Amino acid sequence: MAYPTVDKPYGLKPVNLIGGQVFAGATRQMEIASGYATNIFYGDLVKRISDGTIEKDTGTTTATPVGVFLGVSFTNSSTGQIQQQQFYPASQSIKSGTKIFAVVADDPDTLFQVVSCSATTTVAGMGISAIGNNIALIQNAGSTTTGNSAVAIDEGTQATTNTLPIRIIDVVRDTATGADTFVEFIVKINATMHQYNNSTGV
C-alpha cells in the first residue's frame, strides 16, 4: 500500500490529548497587539508577553510557549468588516477601537503532529528510539499563500535535556519511509516549558 509522501513541514497540528482524549477544538482567544510586526502562521508556537498579548515564540533550543496559533480575526481598517484568516499578517493595521484576536490551542495536554527536518525544510527521518526524548525546533518561515506554518522538529537534537521545548510522544506509522524511519511524530509542549506549567509564568 502506498502511503502519502511528506515533502515539507507544516507546523504543529493538534490531533488529540494525552491518554487518547479527543481534541474537540477547544481553544482560547488571545489578543495580538495592534501593529505587531511579525507574521504568525497556523501551526506556529506563541507565547504571552508582559502586556498580556501574545507574540510568535521563535525559540529553537529553548521556548516558553502558551500554545499553538490556529487563526486570527480582526476588523479590517479599509473595509470595516471582520476578517478571519489562517495567519496574522505582520504590522496589521486595524479599525480604531477594535482588537486583534488569535485562536490558540493552549491546553498543556494537547498532542500535535509535526514533521522532522534536518535543516530548514529538508525532511529527515528518525527511529522509534526518539520517543520519550525532548527535541529542539526549526523556525522556518510560513507561507502567506496557504497561511500555514513551516516549523519543524530538529532531527538529531533529540535528548533528555529538560529545557528543550518539545517532547516526542509517538511516531506516525502511516508515513514511515522505512522499517524504523519516521518523518512525522506526535509531540507535546514540554511540561516544564509550557507557560501554564512553568514556575515563573510570563
What features would you highlight for this structure?
202 residues, mainly beta, eight-stranded mixed sheet, six-stranded antiparallel sheet
Question: Could you describe the 3D structure shown?
Answer:
- With 202 residues, the chain is an all-beta fold.
- It folds into 2 domains: 13-21 and 108-189, no CATH class; 28-105, no CATH class.
- The chain is built from no helices and 14 strands.
- It has strands at residues 13-17, 28-32, 45-48, 54-56, 67-75, 82-85, 100-105, 110-119, 122-123, 134-135, 137-138, 152-154, 166-171, 184-189.
- Strands 1, 8, 9, 10, 11, 12, 13 and 14 form an 8-stranded mixed sheet that branches.
- It starts with 12 loop residues before the first strand and ends in a 13-residue tail after the last strand.
- The model has no long low-confidence stretch (mean pLDDT 94).
Secondary structure: helix percent: under 10%
Secondary-structure element sequence?
Answer: EEEEEEEEEEEEEE
Question: Could you tell me the number of beta strands?
Answer: 14
Calculate the terminal CA-CA distance, rounded to whole Å: 48 Å
Helix-strand category: mainly beta
Shape: globular
The description of the largest β-sheet is: 8 strands, mixed
| Proportion of residues in extended strands | 25-35%
Rg over CA atoms: 17 Å
Average pLDDT works out at 94
What are the low-pLDDT stretches, counting only 5+ consecutive residues below 50? none
Alpha plus pi helix count: 0
Count of separate structural domains: 2
